[in-house]
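Ticket 4471: requesting a sanity check on a complex prediction with zinc ion. Repro inputs:
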Amino acid sequence: MTALPEYEIFAIRYASQALRAEGHTFLGGDHNKLIPGLDFFTYALRGGGRTWVIDTGFTPEKAAIMGRDYAFQTRPSAALAKIGIDAASATDVILTHAHFDHVGTLADYPNAKFHIQDEEMIHVTGRDMAHKPFRAAYYPGDIKELIDLVYADRMVFHAGDVTLAPGLEFILIGGHARGQAILRVHTARGWVILASDAVHVFEEVDEERPFAIFYDLFVMLEGYRRINRMAGSRDLIVPGHDARITKAYPAAGPGLEGLVLRLDLPPVW
Ligand SMILES: [Zn+2]
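Returned structure tokens:
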């Protein structure tokens, strides 16, 4: 049997938020109490002779439209250039879901095919979006771009749990968004789970404390348990917005501290 590739995993921390109302992070949280805010990441993988980009982040212009006040420190494609990944020639971009902070710079990848779960496209283009609460974290301009990608033969659809390449699994969790997916990536330190928004911060998997935004609360809670079981170790779970990740993982090189991290190396808490 051929050994699975051991991927390098890069996290791009493109924006951050210093403080945030507890009620904006946790269901039932206090809207007058401030707690540490969220960090915003995209990712890239190198392994098995291929490069994969995961999510595309968003921009200060989009943040203004969406009424979000975050501190931006880079455009994800500009940070990728610093680790030798050229967005313009990238071949594969995986979208974990289509919330505005995950699909905001699609045009930076003009030659890529985009991978998404069937459930997410059904969610963002159909009847679910006739309900205002489900629209809160989507930007209609992004969704139109996703539809254009379908018609340009640049969207690759996946149904449920699939292997994209040896050592790289795209797993449907749902809950937070109807088509919320995670990545399970084989590395030298084991199978790392990039949880994206299936787990924003560690409290969700540590305490089963629900995040404030969801499509299906039961499915989101079941997702926390499934991710804990799959990972087997907390150090193999990478929540998608936890600022503690930025402190725990090493920089990908000199001058990249707090900007590009290596998640295939062990964290130091
Ligand atoms: Zn989300």
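Notes from triage: The radius of gyration is 17 Å. Leaving this open until the requester confirms.
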